[in-house]
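User: Please run a holo structure prediction.
Assistant: Happy to. Please share the sequence and the ligand.
User: Here you go; the ligand is flavin-adenine dinucleotide.
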Amino acid sequence: RPALAWFRQDLRLADNPALRAAAEGGRPVLPVFVLDDAAAGPWAAGGAARWWLKSSLAALGRDLAARGAPLLLARGRAEIVIPALAEATGAAEVLAGRLYEPWARERDRRVAEALGAAGRDLRLLTSTLLREPETVRSGTGRPYAVYSPFAKSVIGMGEPEAPLPAPDRLRPLATPPPGEALDSLPLYPVPGEPDWARDFGTLWQPGEDGATARLGRFLAGPVTGYANGRNDPGTEGTSGLSPHLRWGEISPRQVWHAVRGALPKDPELAKPFLGEILWREFSYHLLFHRPEMPDRALRDRFAAFPFQPDAALLQAWQRGRTGYPIVDAGMRQLWRFGWMHNRVRMIAASFLVKHLLQPWQAGSAWFWDTLVDADLASNSASWQWIAGSGTDAAPYFRVFNPVLQGEKFDPEGRYVRRFVPELARLPDRWIHRPWEAPAAVLAGAGVALGRGYPRPAIDHAAGRDRALAALRGLPRAA
Ligand code: FAD
C-alpha cells in the first residue's frame, strides 16, 4: 500500500527521514504539501517567507518530478486534507518531519486523531533539529533555560548521525489525485501585481540546489574566517543559510557535518559556527518547552514593562528613518533583501525596544513579515533575549549604543553607505553620527539633515536613561 510523504518544513530530498520512510521497500509514495494558514493563525508565513515558499515549492516539485513522483499541492485544514488524501489513495500511513511550533503540534495531534479514526498512522520523524527536545535535559532532569549548558550538553551527546542520501527513484501512484497549481496558492509574487520582492532573487535561490550552492560558497571562503568575519555586516562573513534552514532545504545535520568536514585539521575553527547552529537548536527547544514564548515575556516581571506604543516611531524604525545610520541601514537591508545581518539585527532590535520603548512584540511582528528566514523559534527567542525578558542571561541594563556599535563593526561605513545612499559621501568620521558633522561637511556631502536624512529620533543618552528608569520601576524578580 502507498504512503503519503507530507512535506512541511523539510523541503528537500536528501537527509529527509520522512520521505525515505515513505518510500521504504519501493512502495508507491505521494509527496504532498498543504498550505494551511488557518491552523497557523497569526503565525502563518509572513510576506517575505511566502515569496521564499513559492520558489521553494517550485524547486521541490521539479526535484520530485525528476525522481518520478510529482508533488501534490493542496490548501485548507490539514486535518481534513491529509486524511482525505490518505483515504483517496488507500495510503497505509502518513510520514512527516516533526514540528515544534505550538500551533503545529496542536494540528499534528488533530491530524493524527483523524487518521487514527480510520486506522491510519501519522509518523513524525526528527528532521529539522539535531536532537529532540525531550532528550536534552539537565542533571536534575529539567530542560535547560540557559544556552551555554544546553550547548555543552548537546555536544556531549556526540556527533549527530550522518545525513541520509536522497532517494534515487521514487515510485509514484498509478493515478494520483488532482492537486492545485502553484500559482493558485496565495503566495508571492502574485502574477500580474507589482513585485515588492524584486531584489530578493538577486541574492537568494530558494530550493535544495540553492541551499547546497550557498553552503558550498560558505565552505569555499568565509568559513575559515567566520569567528571575526561574522561581525562585519559590510562583507559576506556568514553563511546566509538561515532561510534554507528555515524551510528545511538543508538539514542542520548536513550543515554540521559539511562544516566539520571542511575543517578537518582545525576543529577549533568550526566551533563558533557550530555554536550558532546550536543557538538555533536552543531556540526550538525553548519554544517547545515554553510555548508562550512568541507572545509573552518569559520572565514574569517584564510583563509589566511600561512600553509606550507609538505608531509614528514604529513606522520610522520600520522604514529605516530613525536617524541612526546603522539602524536605518539594517532596516533597509531587511526590506530590500528579506534578510539582515545578525549583528545589525541585535542593534536595530535593541534600539526599538530600549531607545524607542516600543514593545518587542511589535518588532518581532515586523521581522515576521519581512524576513525570508522568519522562524517562530529563533525570532521569538532572539527578541526576548534582546528585550531582557528571555530565560538566558542578557542583562537589560546593557543598552547598545548605536553610534559606537556602528563605529566598531562598520568602521568605514561600508554597510551604511550601501543601504543609506543619502549618506554615501559623508567622511568616515561622521558616517555614524551625521548630526555632529559641521554644516560645511554636510553640505559638501550633499546631506540635508532633517529633510533628506532624518535627525535622531531620540538622543542616545536620554533614551538609555529612560529605558533604565523604566527597568528600575519593574517589580522585583520573584
Ligand atoms: P550564520 O552566522 O551563518 O549562522 C548559521 C546558522 O545558525 C543560521 O543560518 C541560523 O540558522 C543559525 N543562527 C545563527 N545565529 C542564530 C541566533 N542568534 N539564533 C538562532 N539561530 C541562529 N534567525 C532565524 O533563522 N530566523 C529568525 O526569525 C531570526 N530572527 C532574529 C531576530 C533578532 C532580533 C535577532 C537578533 C536574531 C534573529 N535571528 C533569526 C538569528 C540570526 O540573526 C540569523 O539566524 C542569522 O543572521 C542568519 O544569517 P546566517 O545564516 O548568515 O547566519
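The beta strands are 3-7, 29-35, 72-75, 93-97, 121-125.
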